[in-house]
Automatic annotation (TrEMBL):
CDD domains: Peptidases_S8_S53. GO terms for biological process: protein processing. PROSITE patterns: SUBTILASE, SUBTILASE_ASP, SUBTILASE_SER. InterPro entries: Peptidase_S8/S53_dom, Peptidase_S8/S53_dom_sf, Peptidase_S8_Asp-AS, Peptidase_S8_Ser-AS, Peptidase_S8_subtilisin-rel. One of its GO terms (cellular component) is membrane. Keywords: Hydrolase, Protease, Serine protease. This is Peptidase S8/S53 domain-containing protein. It comes from Rhodoplanes roseus. One of its GO terms (molecular function) is serine-type endopeptidase activity. The active site is at 145 (charge relay system), 185 (charge relay system), 383 (charge relay system). The keyword Ion transport does not apply. Residues 136-434 form the Peptidase S8/S53 domain.
């Protein structure tokens, strides 16, 4: 059995050059004949090396992840094993990590929408936000998904949304350029961001628009997301370089995807597993970007007890996994515009080994909005709740800089001011801390 993996290798010239080329958006192939590889690992030369600093320890910074400074690099490769239980933990003394399949969180097709995007805007007090100048102006929102179709958005919105093609990114294997992808899940997410933040600038990062070698037709693999976050880090490092001109006030990163079942990952107990391992390279790089000032949001998932997606395989506990359960991100459950939790919204606590009190808050989903999946089809799943919340964060960032209020502080404002709908104050497994209320969060923060 040929199994895709991520390996951590020490710095060497071919890997440094590959990472520099990728950061500069140049074609990057790792020369096999010039790269020292551990035995048993077959390198994928088409995957650019990703700087990971010291490799498997927390505390890395933007500076330690610069290609010329990084002590280690993540590469994608393959190993042979008879069955998953025989996957080695290392190769030549270098640790191996899972590169599992990832997929968008969309479910419950066929059930009609509840309300419209205008109702969501009303519930979020968007007119009041706009009157206070909280509309996303000057804020970049990266849509980490299947890609954006700008023509469809223009038809639905009646105006062309703000879009930055130059700072968008297209992975190897994608068949369309920035803003020109087929109308799909990513277009839905982009539309939903703009409900609360109509003046935000969209960045297109189609991590789910390609299938990585050795992956599955159901989605991409985590290595593509790792590469995309490395690109965001390179972009944000330049934006915040000393003496550099800030093009954007803030960066918000929307992730409406994840893993539906542990069988997609390495077996339990493997030190390179992803879903319950805060030291997986992807989770570490998410933490670096968050500490650098980016607001990162993840969907909770669609394995709720009442209406779980079939890919959950009837598993409805500990279903918030991997980076979706990181303390560095805001994790979203879903409710409809009547404030009723949708039955597919994953419930807490998270998988053992990760931050337990997830989801953080709830946002609106299952409404008539983008119609990306056809006329009358709802924007659904925690996939829609996540960008609705990302738009709220972008709106708040119009007047709240990440220097004055780092992501964890802003998320604390959001959870503290969330509207209670079940029980008293505090966290519960269905709604987290309550339904997101950007107006209350803004007033609490003084904007």
């Amino acid at each position: 059995m040929r199994i895709p993996v991520l390996a951590i290798l020490p710095a060497q010239e071919p890997l440094v050059e590959s990472a520099i080329a990728a950061a500069d958006r140049r074609a990057s192939q790792i020369p096999l004949d010039a790269t020292t590889m551990p035995p048993g690992l077959t390198l994928d030369p088409t995957f650019p090396a990703v700087p990971v600093g010291k490799g498997v320890t927390a505390g890395a910074t933007l500076e330690t992840l610069a290609p010329a400074q990084s002590q280690n690099f993540a590469v994608r490769g393959f190993i042979d094993a008879e069955d998953p239980g025989e996957i080695p933990t290392e190769s030549g003394g270098r640790p191996l990590f899972a590169d599992p399949v990832i997929a968008p969180f969309l479910t419950c097709g066929g059930t009609p929408p509840v309300g419209k995007a205008a109702d969501v805007a009303t519930k979020l007090n968007v007119p009041t936000l706009a009157a206070r100048g909280l509309d996303g102006d000057g804020v970049a929102v990266a849509i980490m998904d299947t890609g954006i179709n700008l023509a469809h958005l223009q038809r639905k919105l009646g105006a062309f949304p703000r879009f930055d093609a130059g700072n968008s990114w297209t992975p190897a294997g994608a068949t369309s350029g920035p803003g020109k992808h087929p109308v799909d899940h990513g277009t839905m997410c982009a539309y939903d961001v703009l409900i609360a933040a109509p003046k935000a600038t969209l960045l297109d990062y189609p991590i789910l628009a390609t299938t990585a070698p050795g992956g599955s037709v159901t989605g991409s693999t985590l290595s593509v997301a790792l590469q995309a976050f490395a690109q965001l880090i390179a972009f944000w490092a330049v934006a915040f370089a000393p003496g550099g001109a800030l093009r954007y006030k803030a960066l918000v990163v929307n992730n409406s995807w994840g893993i539906f079942h542990p069988s997609w990952d390495f077996p339990p107990g493997h030190p390179g597993r992803y879903i319950d391992n805060p030291n997986h390279p992807f989770s570490l790089i998410v933490g670096v970007l968050a500490r650098a000032g980016a607001d990162i949001l993840f969907a909770a998932g669609n394995c709720g007890g009442e209406c779980a997606d079939g890919r959950c395989q009837a598993r409805t506990t500990e279903t918030i996994m991997g980076a979706n359960a990181s303390p560095d991100v805001l994790t979203l459950a879903g409710c409809d515009v009547t404030d009723t939790r949708v039955g597919y919204s994953s419930q807490g606590p998270s998988i053992a080994g990760m931050f337990q009190q997830k989801p953080d808050v709830t946002a609106y989903t299952h409404f008539l909005g983008s119609e990306a999946f056809g006329q009358g089809a709802p924007d659904s799943g925690t996939s829609a709740a996540c960008p609705v919340a990302a738009g709220c964060v972008a709106a708040l960032r119009t007047r709240l800089s990440s220097q004055a209020m780092p992501p964890r502080n802003l998320f604390a404002q959001i959870t503290t001011t969330a509207r209670q709908v079940q029980g008293g104050p505090g966290w519960n497994r269905n709604y987290g801390h309550g339904i997101i209320d950007p107006d209350a969060a803004g007033q609490s923060a003084g904007v």
